[in-house]
Amino acid sequence: MTDEVRERFVARVKAIDPVFKRGDLEQFWPMLRELIGTAPDRRDLSQKKSHYLASLAVRSLGRDDPRSALAFLDYADRSIDRSHLTPFLLGERADFRRQAEVVLKARRPR
Questions:
Q1: CATH number of the domain to which 84 belongs
Q2: How many domains does the chain have?
Q3: Which whole number is the average pLDDT over 6-35?
Q4: Which of 27, 32, 47, 53 is most exposed, with the fewest beta carbons within 10 Å of its own?
């Protein structure tokens, strides 16, 4: 038996990724909000959402954009039920948050 909700979720991620890569934020954010709003009661999808948002954060760090990285992590904090997440997923987000904050702190004028 297939899991249609999970399959739709994966298809949406595949549709969003090229939009993110080309930097079309006007189209990207509504698509991302729709994705994150999918099945909030599903623990398995909450975990996938957390990991996806963390991956967007780390890609933003790779683009030297720590503010966007923090925006993705903040969005995850606001939108995903923490009780659905494993210690690894929570730690992953915390690590990326620390990295973004270090970059921003280094850029502050003294």
A1: 1.25.40
A2: 1
A3: 94
A4: 27
